[in-house]
């Protein structure tokens, strides 16, 4: 049984050389990975195969940063769930930066589940949970108060995070993994990791540095 999920969302940041350099830098930390924790890397679409190759030598898993709303067809420029499922066990959908309507995220969720990809569903408003939640998903609360912008972290009092997480748990069952996103970094991870009702974190800018990301993982180990 998986204890925690630690997800690295690289967004539109890493080029090919950056990705190779990250893999080289992170390879020395692979020995710290625990089978109890699921470590998931979400690179940009072109570099999914690079991380997939690393995953074959380790316990890392790969996620797509998004999937198409369309299942298949003449959708130029789109990438469907059926196209990434050989590489990706997970897909991040509904990320706050994309500002998608709930019905769009729900449609992507169902496509992922149909293709046997576990959707990591991002949300900022707990009121949307009733529509977004479904068995077999991971919910990722992106705290709108302290989502980082351009690598600038916005600190949040951990006690306030606990209050809202507890409210979220009243809506979704304890069996549904709930992870936290919002300026997760090496300075606040110890506090976030102690929040009982959380099952891990969604890490943005801090995951671009392999050592920093490894430090975040070791906090959970």
From TrEMBL:
Span of the signal peptide: none
SUPFAM superfamilies documented for this protein: Triosephosphate isomerase (TIM)
GO molecular function: triose-phosphate isomerase activity
UniProt-listed Enzyme Commission number(s): 5.3.1.1
Reactions catalysed: D-glyceraldehyde 3-phosphate = dihydroxyacetone phosphate
GO CC annotations on file: cytosol
This protein's record includes keyword Cytoplasm: yes
Pathway membership: Carbohydrate biosynthesis; gluconeogenesis; Carbohydrate degradation; glycolysis; D-glyceraldehyde 3-phosphate from glycerone phosphate: step 1/1
One BP annotation, GO: glyceraldehyde-3-phosphate biosynthetic process
Record keywords, A-Z: Cytoplasm, Gluconeogenesis, Glycolysis, Isomerase
Protein name per the record: Triosephosphate isomerase
Organism encoding this protein: candidate division WWE3 bacterium
């Amino acid at each position: 049984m998986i204890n925690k999920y630690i997800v690295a969302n690289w967004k539109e940041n890493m080029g090919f050389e950056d990705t190779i350099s990250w893999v080289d830098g992170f390879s020395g930390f692979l020995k710290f990975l625990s089978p109890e924790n699921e470590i998931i890397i979400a690179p940009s679409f072109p570099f999914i195969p690079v991380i997939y190759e690393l995953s074959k030598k380790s316990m890392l898993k790969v996620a797509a940063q998004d999937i198409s709303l369309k299942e298949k067809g003449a959708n130029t420029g789109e990438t469907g769930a059926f196209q990434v499922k050989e590489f990706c066990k997970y897909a991040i959908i509904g990320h706050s930066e994309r500002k998608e309507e709930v019905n769009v995220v729900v449609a992507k969720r169902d496509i992922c589940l149909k293709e046997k990809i576990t959707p990591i569903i991002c949300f900022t408003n707990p009121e949307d949970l009733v529509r977004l939640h479904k068995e077999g998903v991971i919910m990722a609360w992106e705290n709108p108060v302290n989502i980082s912008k351009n690598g600038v972290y916005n600190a949040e009092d951990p006690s306030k995070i606990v209050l809202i997480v507890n409210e979220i748990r009243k809506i979704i069952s304890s069996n549904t993994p709930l992870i936290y996103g919002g300026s997760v970094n090496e300075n606040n991870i110890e506090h976030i990791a102690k929040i009982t009702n959380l099952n891990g974190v969604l890490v943005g800018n801090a995951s671009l540095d392999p050592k920093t990301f490894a430090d975040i993982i070791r906090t959970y180990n």
